[in-house]
Amino acid sequence: MHNEPLAFRMRPETIDEVIGQDHVIGETTPLYRMIKNGHVPSLLLYGEPGIGKTSLAYAIAGTSKLPFIALNATVAGKKDVEDVVKEARMTGKVLLFLDEIHRFNKLQQDTLLPHVESGSIILIGATTENPFHDVNPAIRSRCGEIVQLKRLQPEDLLNLLKRTLEDKKKGLGQEDIVITTEQLQKIAEGVNGDARKALTFLESLLAASDEENGQIIVEDDLLQQLLTRISLLGDKKGSHHYNLLSALQKSVRGSDVNAALYYLAQLLEIGDLTAVTRRLLVMSYEDIGLAAPDVGAHVVAATDAALRLGMPEARIPLSVVTVEMCLASKSNSAYRAIDQATKVLHEQPTGEIPMHLRDTHYGGAAQLGHGGYVYPHDTPVGSFGGWTDQQYLPDSLAGTEFYSPVEAGDETRMAAIYKRLLSFKGKKNPR
Question: The AAA+ ATPase domain covers which part of the protein (predicted)?
Answer without folding.
Answer: 39-151
